[in-house]
């Protein structure tokens, strides 16, 4: 091979090789990527490098052509046509965690088998004694298979886009177009250099998919944090002092009124069950369900305080949804910091709802001593439940939580739920 040609080949190889090497190191030492994703991306890189090496050898064979090179030239072309659909299939394995993704290996295998026949039959292509390439009746199989795989990947990503939202699928959808662009440019410009447009676009796809996988990790991490927040919310509602006081009341009733003790035990069990069920409630639940859980809590507290705690309900509407455990923590806050801090420990808690033109409102009102309006509940670490309510309302349904308080007259907590 001419020395100048060899130098040009090495220069052309340097940039994509360095990019693949750097990406390979990043993937190999990345502690956040799943093992199967690592293997897939590294395998794609290895195939791209072998395709570049195939181009080098192919150019060298063409440059120093001899009739005895026909078999070698045929073998190189067979590998090129068989390997390219494999790369697209591996990209599908990266973005689609579904057992059905294995089915895509069937057309890939058939494509490889068809082009392997070129070693003994001219069905796919053949190489003439002068080194010219001639396509057979099955010579476009790789193009059709690659097109089918790209369309399938596009359909998969559009389905995921409808399910997960646009932001989560921007990079995969872009990569479908980039992956299709390379072969189109190779076909239009008939490029025969060491680096084809297909290899260049594949390198870019590897980089973008690596970034996308990190975005997926961040997204999964955020979902895990939300799940942990739900557990924290549930635990914040099952406070030791409440458990102790409720059980103490039940024990006392066992001696004085066994029937009421039995009813109180059932209510307490339902209350605990409601808190446990809230772990599974990632989205919205009917307001009636949340109100029922709040009633259980207030009825248990009424067993403790008797006539000292009055509960009123002014439910003007209940045909809307609300995040789980958003009203009950406010009712508990009203009892603890409203009624119990009144002189004599007496007071009233009111639960009310109203419907407006574009939203629903839920009110939890107490006639307690009130508080400094510049220090709303949730500002301190002793109000974890209130903070969780505010954050869940915003995250789940773009709802809001506000407080109004007048010293000596009480406090009103107001939840606002936008209509869809």
Structure, described:
With 420 residues, the chain is of the alpha+beta class. It has 2 domains: 225 residues, Rhopdopsin 7-helix transmembrane proteins; 181 residues, Heat Shock Protein 90. The strands form 3 sheets. A 5-stranded mixed sheet has the order 4-6-7-9-8. Strands 1-2 form a two-stranded antiparallel ribbon. Helix 5 runs antiparallel to helix 6.
Task: Give me the secondary-structure topology.
Blueprint: H1 3-28, H2 35-63, H3 70-95, H4 105-116, E1 125-127, E2 133-135, H5 141-164, H6 170-189, H7 197-237, H8 240-256, H9 258-277, E3 284-286, H10 287-305, E4 309-315, E5 321-323, H11 328-339, E6 347-355, E7 359-366, H12 384-397, E8 400-406, E9 410-418
Parallel strand pairs: 4-6
Antiparallel strand pairs: 1-2, 3-5, 6-7, 7-9, 8-9
Helix pairs in contact: 1-2, 1-7, 2-3, 2-7, 3-4, 3-5, 5-6, 6-7, 7-12, 8-9, 9-10, 10-11
Summarize the structure.
The chain has 420 residues and is of the alpha+beta class. It is built from twelve helices and nine strands.
């Amino acid at each position: 091979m001419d020395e100048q040609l060899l130098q040009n080949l090495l220069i052309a190889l340097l940039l994509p090789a360095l990019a693949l090497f750097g990406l390979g190191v990043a993937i190999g030492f990345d502690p956040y990527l799943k093992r199967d994703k690592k293997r897939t991306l590294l395998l794609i890189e290895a195939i791209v490098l072998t395709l570049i090496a195939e181009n080098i050898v192919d150019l060298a064979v063409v440059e120093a052509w001899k009739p005895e090179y026909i078999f070698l030239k045929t073998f190189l072309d067979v590998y090129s046509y068989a390997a390219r659909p494999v790369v697209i299939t591996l990209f599908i394995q990266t973005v689609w965690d579904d057992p059905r993704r294995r089915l895509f290996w069937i057309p890939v295998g058939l494509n490889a088998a068809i082009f392997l026949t070129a070693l003994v039959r001219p069905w796919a292509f053949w190489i003439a004694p002068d080194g010219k390439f001639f396509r057979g009746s099955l010579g476009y199989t790789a193009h059709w298979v690659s097109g089918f795989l790209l369309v399938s990947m596009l359909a998969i990503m559009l389905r995921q886009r409808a399910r997960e939202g646009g932001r989560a699928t921007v990079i995969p959808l872009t990569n479908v177009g980039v992956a299709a662009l390379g072969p189109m440019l190779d076909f239009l410009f008939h490029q025969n250099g060491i680096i084809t447009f297909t290899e260049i676009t594949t390198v870019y796809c590897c980089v973008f998919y690596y970034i996308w996988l990190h975005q997926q990790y961040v997204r999964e991490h955020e979902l895990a944090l939300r799940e942990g927040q739900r557990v924290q919310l549930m635990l914040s509602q099952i406070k030791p002092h409440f458990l102790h006081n409720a059980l103490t009341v039940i024990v006392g009733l066992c001696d004085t009124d066994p029937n009421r003790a039995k009813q109180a035990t059932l209510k307490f069990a339902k209350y605990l069950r409601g808190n446990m069920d809230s772990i599974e409630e990632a989205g919205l639940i009917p307001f009636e369900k949340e109100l029922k859980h709040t009633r259980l809590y207030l009825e248990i507290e009424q067993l403790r305080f008797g006539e000292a705690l009055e509960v009123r309900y002014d439910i003007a509407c209940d045909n809307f949804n609300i995040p789980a455990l958003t009203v009950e923590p406010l009712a508990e806050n009203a009892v603890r910091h409203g009624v119990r801090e009144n002189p004599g420990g007496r007071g009233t808690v009111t639960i009310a709802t109203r419907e407006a033109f574009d939203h629903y409102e839920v009110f939890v009102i107490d006639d307690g001593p009130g508080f400094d309006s510049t220090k709303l509940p949730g500002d301190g670490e002793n109000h974890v439940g209130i903070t969780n309510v505010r954050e869940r309302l915003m995250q789940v349904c773009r709802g809001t939580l506000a407080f109004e308080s007048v010293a000596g007259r009480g406090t009103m907590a107001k939840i606002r739920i936008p209509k869809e």
